[in-house]
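So, is this right?
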Amino acid sequence: MSSLPASPSSSAPRRWLPLMFGYPVLAMAGVLTHRQAFSLAACALLLTLLMAPGLASRRPAPWVAWLLALLAMGWLWWHGLVGVLLACVPIAINLLLASLFGRSLRAGATPLIARFIAAVEGPERLRTPGLAAYARGLTWFWTVLTATQALVLSVLLLCAEPGGLLASLGLALPWPVPAGPAQSYAHVGGYVLIALAFLLEHAFRRWRLRHIRHPRLHELALGIASRWPQLVRGEDPAAP
């Protein structure tokens, strides 16, 4: 497959890609230094990345929503509650991903992975023998993985000792978890797991479907990142 052509619609998302690595760095800095300013910056950066497509449209509504959300974060920081907000972010991200992948598995819908393939390589690519079935199975895999990850992170948030929500409320912990490992997994380990799953799946796919040609890893990542806003909004490039 040839390199993905650059286009105005894909160049803007690519400019945001380096900032995606800033969130886990700032989040972990907040955990290690116990400075809520780092946690606040991490949440503000993540909010900006998630709202980037709307902000890029220059419509007033997304900018008003973004400013109101920043004001709400500032209020939480003023009252010393940014840590709780930051702890809930990975859970929310995984629940959102599980919902996106899972909803695409409904009858009559195109699995999200199939949409990725159609967006990056063209709708006709899905007619390759075995690829559509693999895309559905992989969509199931990501649905289960992200839902399980959300459950694990919720348990860590509730049962960390000290500092967990249950301990803060004076309630008994069903499964006490040391706070250090719990926070490290929530803010670093969980993202490492997702990255490893992505890399291992890419290697497995190239072996399992070795009868077809696959895009290179950086082409795949850039292609998904540049088209992610349209796919999240429900646009289906595989639809006739």
